[in-house]
Design a protein that fits this description.
158 residues; alpha+beta; Methane Monooxygenase Hydroxylase, Chain G, domain 1; 2 domains; 6 helices; 5 strands; CarD-like_C; CarD family transcriptional regulator; CarD-like/TRCF_RID
Length: 158
């Protein structure tokens, strides 16, 4: 169970801060929800408390883990399927996992591939989404601005 003020990650959406825990009636059913504020885009997300385990909501990473994420970003590319469809599905599964290291690997691999060969429209969108997820967690974990987090990522991936 999370509390108000906790910094958490919602897989596929990114990191945010729990602002409130409220009971709401939606479609005739009363449920309790975490109200999570996302640092990027000032968006708010409602997460049903009874779905937290299924969704994979987790605490944000520590400063030590930030360094490990930076190491993943600066690593060499890992093997990716040559077929773009298989590659896209494999990367999507990594992002859906909610594992920050997997998301970092997707960002690294797609950024490097973009430099070498360019990306399809779908992969460009995926890179942008994965990067936003990574940026949102770095913003909260390190207490930095969005632009500073993006610079960190860009500098790590060379």
């Amino acid at each position: 169970m999370f509390n108000i003020g906790d910094k958490v990650v919602y897989p596929m959406h990114g990191a945010g801060v729990i602002e409130a825990i409220e009971e709401k009636e939606i479609l005739g059913k009363k449920r309790k929800y975490y109200i999570m504020k996302m640092p990027l885009g000032e968006m708010k997300v409602m997460i049903p408390l009874d779905n937290v385990g299924d969704i994979g909501l987790r605490d944000i990473i520590s400063l030590d883990e930030v360094e490990q994420v930076m190491a993943v970003l600066s690593d060499d590319t890992s093997k990716m399927p040559k077929n773009w469809n298989r590659r896209y599905r494999a990367n999507l599964d990594k992002i859906k996992s909610g594992d920050i290291y997997e998301v970092a690997a997707v960002v690294r691999n797609l950024m490097l591939r973009d430099k070498e060969k360019g990306l399809s429209t779908g992969e460009k969108k995926m890179l942008n989404n994965a990067k936003q997820i990574l940026i949102s967690e770095l913003v909260l974990a390190r207490g930095i601005e969005e632009q500073a987090a993006e610079i960190l990522i860009n500098e790590a991936v060379q």
